[in-house]
Specification:
The chain starts with 5 loop residues before the first helix and ends with a strand. The protein has helices at 6-9, 23-33, 51-59, 114-119, 151-161, 180-189, 214-224, 244-259, 266-283, 295-312, 326-333, 335-351, 376-392, 416-432, and strands at 16-18, 37-42, 45-50, 74-75, 78-80, 98-102, 108-113, 144-146, 165-170, 173-179, 207-209, 228-232, 238-243, 316-323, 358-363, 366-372, 403-409, 438-441. Helices cover 39% and strands 21% of the residues. It is built from 14 helices and 18 strands. The chain is globular, with a radius of gyration of 24 Å. The protein folds into 3 domains: 6-120, CBS-domain, CATH 3.10.580; 124-244, CBS-domain; 295-441, 2-Layer Sandwich (Alpha-Beta Plaits). By secondary structure, the chain is an alpha/beta fold.
């Protein structure tokens, strides 16, 4: 079995628009080709304008005669067309489901989607013993809404949480679904948004039993051309949503096992898979930009340290911090400088921490530091020390930043949610006090 190359699976006919054209022109092209997204080109950089972006702009009464360059868009990752399909695995932790394939000059060659990747997974090769229910814990952020809710509530929920769909329930039964593709039709037809969402949802909902195998799920997606699967229990009640990338990640692990059975390619495959396996393992626990622990790994380590704290009757504290006015940095200097600031800040924090301390990027410009055996007064002193070090540090471009801190002590009975809530409340108070300060929450 041979892994396909990117140019063999990429979609060559890609609908795109120049970044200096207007939003109205982009929307017209999306209607014309019946697309919920469009690729935006800025020389050798590629962005995506989605139906969700259009919805957010519509809710803000944006002037669609403005140029596309006037708004912030998600930058798409790129991969050379001659690379292997396995090289797409490092992108699977992103929410965006598109990867731009480029030629040797960096020009757009085509587009690779999760659909393209999943279409090249042989269902006969997948684990028949794994069930969809085993994956349900991976996806908790599922938007669901009652059939009597207004269409406006559904759309605002999708825009606020960046969901690409909302499942409509009657009691616990899924009776419809509203996706980003439906959004484009709603914007075009300008319906009464106060009407029940059930008037505009797609129905009926095609679902799979949560006890279906991964093989059945892959087949289902390939036949139906779905990007997601609505799952139900034996009573037909809604239990969750499975995305393409979750199935791809699981399939990758199975691929690695199967490839070792092909002796003719053993040397090449072993070298390739060893490298990819290490990257994939790292991807599961490390934030790609800063090299710090990601939210998933930090939560896992928090649980382990909490049990140690309880067993040994130790103290433990938590610090939450974020960069003041970080959006202004991105707006003024660009996201590349913003990324550099996040990386330099991470290095400053690491230089002042003990080996036993645990630091993670919680999201965006927010960071968490777990301090085993540290009382809250010591945590406060450390936070103040970090604050001063960051304030005095000269970032690239002679840029100066400040940070705000929330500090709390871990208590018996805490979980990650309750501990972070107290630290976040303290951080919020620090912001309200004018930023660039440390606030302790002793509640």
């Amino acid at each position: 079995m041979k892994f396909p190359l990117i140019y063999e699976i990429a979609t060559k006919d890609v609908v795109n628009i120049d970044i200096n054209q207007t939003l109205a022109e982009a929307i017209d092209m999306m209607y014309k080709y019946n697309h919920r997204n469009i690729i935006v080109i800025d020389k050798n950089r590629f962005f995506i304008l989605t139906a969700n972006d259009i919805l957010k702009l519509k809710l803000k009464s944006c002037d669609f005669s403005n140029k596309i360059s006037s708004i912030d868009l998600e930058v798409l990752p790129t991969i050379n067309k001659d690379e292997n399909i396995l090289d797409t695995m490092s992108f699977l932790e992103r929410d965006i489901e598109y990867i731009c394939a480029t030629d040797d000059e960096g020009n757009l060659f085509g587009l690779v989607t999760y659909t393209d990747i999943i279409s090249h997974i042989d269902p006969e090769s997948l684990m028949e013993n794994y069930r969809l229910a085993d994956l349900m814990k991976m996806n908790k952020n599922v938007q669901k809404i009652s059939k009597d809710s207004s269409t406006k509530d559904a759309l605002e929920g999708m825009a606020e949480n960046n969901y690409d769909c909302v499942v409509v329930l009657e009691g616990k039964l899924p009776i419809g679904i509203l996706t980003t593709k439906d959004i484009m039709n709603l914007i075009k037809n300008r319906p009464n948004l106060d009407s029940d969402v059930s008037e505009y949802m797609s129905t009926p909902v095609e679902s799979l039993d949560e006890n279906s195998s991964i093989k059945e799920a892959i087949n289902f997606m390939q036949v139906k051309h779905f990007k997601r699967i609505v799952t139900t229990n034996s009573d037909g009640e809604f239990t969750g949503l499975i995305l393409q990338k979750e199935l791809i990640s699981l399939s990758y692990s199975r691929w690695a096992i199967l490839m070792k059975q092909y002796s003719s390619e053993l040397s090449e495959i072993n070298t390739l898979l060893e490298d990819k396996s290490k990257k994939f393992e790292k991807m599961a626990s490390i934030d790609q930009l800063t090299g710090l622990y990601n939210r998933y790994k930090f939560t896992e380590l928090f649980v382990l340290e909490y049990h140690t704290m309880v067993q040994r009757d130790n103290k433990m504290s938590l610090i939450m911090l974020d960069i003041d006015h970080f959006k202004k940095i991105n707006d003024r200097y660009g996201h590349n400088i913003g990324d550099t600031v996040l990386l330099q800040l991470s290095n400053i924090l690491l230089r002042h921490l003990r080996n036993v301390d645990i630091i993670g990027r919680w999201g965006g410009e927010e960071f968490l530091i777990l301090l085993p055996t540290a009382e809250i007064e010591n945590a406060k002193k450390l936070a103040e020390k970090l604050r001063l070090s960051i304030e005095e540090y000269d970032m690239d471009n002679n840029l100066k930043i400040t940070t705000s801190f929330g500090v709390t002590e871990i208590k018996q009975g805490d979980d990650i949610k309750s501990a972070v809530k107290r630290a976040d409340d303290a951080l919020y108070e620090a912001k309200a006090k004018g930023r660039n300060c440390v606030v302790v929450n002793t509640q």
